[in-house]
Amino acid sequence: MMGSEGMTVIGEGIHVHGRVHGEEDLRIEGRIEGSISLTETVHVAQSGVVVATIEARDVVVSGVVVGNVSATNSVHLERGAKLVGDIDAPRLIIADGAAFRGNVVMGEGADATAASTAKARPVATPRARPAASRPMGTASKPAASKPAAGRPGGRPERVEARAARPERPAPAPRVAAIRPPQATGGPDEEVTVVVRHAALAEDDEANEAVESRKKPGKKAPPRGRVPKPGKRRVNRR
Amino acid sequence: MANTVIGSTIVIDGEITGDEDLVVQGTVKGRVSLRENILVEESGVLEANVETATITIHGTVTGDIQASERAELKSNCRVVGDIRAPRILIADGASFKGNVDMDG
Q1: Does ipTM exceed 0.90?
Q2: A98 and A119 inside one domain
Q3: Same domain, yes or no, for A148 and A94?
Q4: A95/A176 same-domain check
Q5: Contacts of B16 in chain A (CB under 8 A)
Q6: For position B78, what pLDDT does the model report?
C-alpha cells in the first residue's frame, strides 16, 4: 500500500462507468467510460481503453482513447497509442507508431472554435464561388463577414486570400453565372476550366459564353441520345 | 500493482464493474460490482451499493453490501446500510447501522 500512495490504478479487469476526478496520478489499464478530470497525470496503459473526455495536466497514451483530450501541459501519444478526438494542449508529442484522428489546438482554448470552423470553410468556399462571382464588389463581403461573425485568431487573412482567388478569374462571371444550372452535379474542375478560357481570350468571353451555352445543349442530349442511336439503327435496319 | 487502487484524492461518480481486487482509498459513489475482493482503507469512502465476493472495511461505507463470501467490518469503520453475506465479522470499535442477513 505504501508504494501505491498518491497513485491510482484502474486495473485491467476493471470497468468504470461515470465520472472520475481527483488530484493525483491515474493509471488506466482497464476501461473507463465517462469523463476524467485530474490535476495530475493520466496514463492510459497499453491495455487501457478510455471512452471519455480527459482533462489533466499531462496525458500519456499508450492504449486507446476515444474522446477529447485537454491538457494544461502536454499530451504524449506513444507507440501503439490510438486516439480519436480533439487535442487541446500547449505541447503535443506523437511518437512513431501512434494513430491519431482529430483536431489539434496548441494554444489558448479560445482558438479551438476558430480552428474547427476554419477547417469547415475550405469546404464551404467552393460552393460559395458562383455566388461570389456574380457581383465583383460583394465578393469580398461575404468572405469578410464570416470572420467578422466573431471568430478570433489569425485565420481571417487566409480566408481573404481564398476569397481573392475567385476575384482574379472574375472576367468569367457571366460564364459562371450560366454554368450553375448546367453544372449542378459538376465538380470544381469544370469551374477551373472556365477560368482558363476566360484568361486565354477575354475578348471571346461572349463567344465562349455562347459555346458554353451550346455545350450544355450538347451535354444534355446524351440522355436523349441514348434512344436516338437506337432509333437510327432502327431506321437503318 | 496489478490490482486496482482508487487513490485518496480520487472521486469516482458512477459505476465500477470488473473481476479483480479493488482498493479504495478515495471516494466512490454509485455502484460497485466485483467478483473479487474490496478493501476500503481508512481514508476510503464508499457511497454505493456493493456487490462483491469479500469486502473488508476500515473506512466508511454508506449503502447496501452484498458479499457472496464474507464481509468484514474492522475497528474504526463506519457502515450504514444493509449487509447480506454468509459470513459477517464485526470487530470491536466498528460502527454499524443497518440490517444483517447471513442466510446468503
Answers
A1: no
A2: no
A3: no
A4: no
A5: 14-17
A6: 94
Domain that holds residue A71: 7-105
- Do B4 and A11 count as a contact with CB atoms less than 8 A apart? yes
In a domain, A141, yes or no: yes
Clarify whether residues A32 and A54 are in a common domain: yes
On average, the pLDDT of chain A sits at: 66
Is B18's CB within 8 Å of A7's CB?
no
State whether A99 and A186 are in the same domain. no
CB of A40 within 8 A of CB of A23?
Answer: yes
Considering only CB atoms, A18 lies closest to which of B2, B30, B41, namely B30
Quick check: B16 contacting A, CB < 8 Å?
yes
Best residue of A4, A5, A10 to probe chain B, by most B CBs closer than 10 Å:
A10
A143/A85 same-domain check: no
- Inside any domain, residue A227: no
Cβ-proximal residues to A46 (8 Å cutoff; 6+ apart), any chain: A62, A63, A80
Could you say which residues of chain B have pLDDT below 70? 1-2, 104
User: Model confidence over A66-101: pLDDT tens digits?
Assistant: 999 999 999 999 999 999 999 999 999 999 999 999
Other C-beta atoms closer than 10 Å to the C-beta of A215 total 14
Q: Where are the beta strands (DSSP E) in B1-104?
A: 4-6, 11-18, 22-24, 27-34, 37-40, 45-57, 60-62, 65-73, 78-80, 83-84, 87-90, 95-97, 100-101
* Chain-chain contact of A18 with B1 (C-beta, under 8 angstroms): no
| Residue pLDDT, tens place only, A99-131 | 999 999 987 544 444 444 444 444 444 444 444
A164 & A118 share domain = yes
Report yes or no on A86 lying in a domain. Answer: yes
Single pTM value for the model: 0.58
Residues of B in contact with A25 (CB under 8 A): 7
For B14, the closest chain A residue by CA position comes to: A18
Share of chain B above pLDDT 90, in %: 93
Closest among A64, A33, A58 to A46, alpha carbons compared: A64
B23 contacts B4 by C-beta, under 8 angstroms: yes
